[in-house]
Amino acid sequence: MTRPAATLQRGDGVSIAYRHTPGHSPGVLFCTGFKSDMTGSKALALEAFCRQNGQQFTRFDYQGHGESSGRFEDGTIGEWLADTLAVVDEVTEGPLILVGSSMGGWIGLLTAVARPDRIKGFVGIATAIDFVRRIWDGIDDDTRALLETEGVWMRPSEYDPDGYPITLTLIEEGRDHLLMPGPIPFNGVARLLHGQLDDAVPWRGSLDIAEALTSTDVTVTCIKDAGHRLSRDQDIARILDATAEITEVLSAR
């Protein structure tokens, strides 16, 4: 039987659902992607992996996602970053490895910059850094006009038959959190994974992130036959290997 999620009250009416497994350091914190939740295969695989190794692990839902409060359409990068920082500060302990999938990679790097004393490792999975800028630059004038008049556009997606709601607020507020072209002040251990068949986030972006990070301990793994989600068994094995590698490096220091 699945245990119920715990709830973190942010103090501003927002409640964040999370599941935390105590254990040794460094802990692992998983940040989900855009319109995803903490019940995905990568989050669950990491949880099982950490539990087996006695390692602290935390997964959670941003507001407007999964079991947390709020409407997805009201979310912004800044709000979801605040959710993540609240979980780091109030739920987790000690040094952390942050594993971020797609948008969660961007949120994760923002968290690493904001909490350099806590975030010591980073695993980026098809990191969708600054994706609001790519969306705006990639749409035509009619779609921009729609966003400016209606405030929301249902972006077609192969992952959701109804499409994803993209709000003008998400794009405009997201510009306050852009990290590229860098430098990105993170000096921890970073492992970036990206499928070269990714049709949602260009894989060469992970090479740009590696160059922008101030850390010298950065590697990029490009997986030629993988798409965006990196949720096949062999892809998840790579994510677990990267997490284990960073754990070993940090534990040796």
Keywords:
253 residues, alpha/beta, Rossmann fold, eight-stranded mixed sheet, two-stranded antiparallel sheet, 8 helices, 10 strands
Q: In summary, what is this structure?
A:
This protein is α/β, with parallel strands linked by helices. It is built from eight helices and ten strands.
Assign the CATH topology of the largest domain. Rossmann fold
Major beta sheet, specifics? 8 strands, mixed
Q: Could you tell me the strand content as a percent range?
A: 25-35%
CATH H-level superfamily of the largest domain: Alpha/Beta hydrolase fold, catalytic domain
Supply the CATH architecture of the largest domain: 3-Layer(aba) Sandwich
Strand order of the largest sheet: 1-2-4-3-5-6-9-10
Please count the beta strands (DSSP E, at least 2 residues each). Answer: 10
What this model shows, in words?
This protein is of the alpha/beta class and 253 residues long. The protein is built from eight helices and ten strands. The chain has two domains: 196 residues, Alpha/Beta hydrolase fold, catalytic domain (Rossmann fold), CATH 3.40.50.1820; 37 residues, no CATH class. The longest helix is centred in the last third of the chain and has 20 residues. The radius of gyration is 17 Å and the shape is globular.
